[in-house]
Amino acid sequence: MSQNIKEIMKPFRDRIDAIDEEIIALLRKRYDVIEEVGVFKTDNGIAPVLQDRVDAVRERAATMAAEQGLDEDFIRHLYAQLIEHSCDLEDQIMTRLKSKKAS
């Protein structure tokens, strides 16, 4: 790629990089809430995965995607991965807390 093209592309790449930073910061916030949920569920004997909530989150994301002109199938897939990882994280938190209480 010529130097001229790289210079022309730089502002676009900088904007994408800034958006990526925002996405990562939002994921950090989401994980912080997941930790709180894991504590709450452990303290109150609630199951780690509530399928109706998982389904609702995926459908809400797909609806928001459609409203924004994004590919609904891609967003469903993305959210499936996000939810799977979130559930794994929540399970780890709950397991850790339960083992602390048991000891």
Properties at a glance:
single chain; 103 residues; Chorismate Mutase Domain, subunit A
Q: SSE layout and pairings?
A:
Elements: H1 3-44, H2 51-67, H3 72-102
Helix pairs in contact: 1-3, 2-3
Structure in words:
This protein has one domain (3-102): Chorismate Mutase Domain, subunit A (Up-down Bundle). The chain contains three helices and no strands. It has helices at 3-44, 51-67, 72-102. Helix 1 (3-44) crosses helix 3 (72-102) and helix 2 packs antiparallel against helix 3. The longest helix is centred in the N-terminal third of the chain and has 42 residues, at 3-44. 5% of the residues are buried. The model has no long low-confidence stretch (mean pLDDT 93).
The arrangement of helices and strands along the chain is: HHH
CATH superfamily: Chorismate mutase
What structural category do the secondary elements indicate?
mainly alpha
Report the mean per-residue pLDDT as an integer.
Answer: 93
Major sheet, described briefly?
A: none
- As for the number of domains, it is 1
**CATH class label:** Mainly Alpha
What share of the residues lie within helices? over 70%
Portion in strands: under 5%
Got a strand count?
A: 0
Q: Could you say which overall geometry the principal axes of the C-alpha atoms support?
A: elongated
